[in-house]
Design goal:
With about 180 residues, the chain is α+β, with helices and mostly antiparallel strands. It contains eight helices and four strands. The strands form two sheets. Strands 1-2 form a two-stranded antiparallel sheet. A two-stranded antiparallel ribbon has the order 3-4.
């Protein structure tokens, strides 16, 4: 039995590969496990305490190095989700005007994903595209647990399988029609 915290060379490779893309199956394949059983091996590896601890340590090290924290990610999503686009554009004399980028705050600049000019026969148009506000709200909602899980698990007595009950065609028709007798 291996001492807790000690990883085999394949397990070390799995951890390193997992930290690249967080894909357990592909990480198992790249670490040298059989492609045929990589899905199962990847899932099993993630359940092993020494591997999950090594993965968390790798994430922590990367977070410290890049200075990216969960708080910072949530703050940026908050900016995208809640900055009012009218803070960067306005309508003057029937024409859309965009503030000079030097006048925009960091939060206002954050919501801009694309800015450019398009020249057509009718003149020059400015194209402004903002970050996906709905996606930012969705990610914030998931982080905060706002949305209930859409998964519904049903089990029988004691968490076991649901027992099957034989029914006649007449009983099935009665249930399907909603008639309760």
């Amino acid at each position: 039995m291996k001492a807790r915290g000690i990883l085999t060379p394949k397990q070390k490779a799995f951890v390193e590969e997992y930290l690249v893309d967080l894909n357990a199956t592909q990480s198992a394949i790249r670490a040298g496990y059989s492609p045929r059983t990589a899905y199962r091996t990847g899932a099993d590896n993630l359940k092993k305490p020494q591997i999950s601890e090594a993965i968390q340590a790798g994430k922590d090290k990367r977070s410290a190095k890049t200075e990216i924290t969960a708080e910072k990610v949530v703050r940026e999503l908050d900016r995208i989700a809640f900055t009012d686009p009218s803070e960067i554009v306005s309508v003057v004399d029937g024409r859309v005007k965009i503030k000079d980028t030097s006048e925009l705050t960091a939060a206002q600049r954050m919501i801009v994903s694309e800015l450019g000019e398009v020249t057509t026969a009718s003149g020059t148009n400015i194209r402004l595209k903002t970050q996906d506000r709905i996606r930012a709200l969705e990610l914030l909602g998931k982080h905060l647990g706002v949305f209930p899980s859409s998964k519904l698990e049903v089990s029988g007595p004691g968490g076991g399988p649901i027992p099957l009950v034989a029914m006649s065609d007449a009983e099935l028709e009665r249930i399907a029609s909603g008639v309760d007798s």
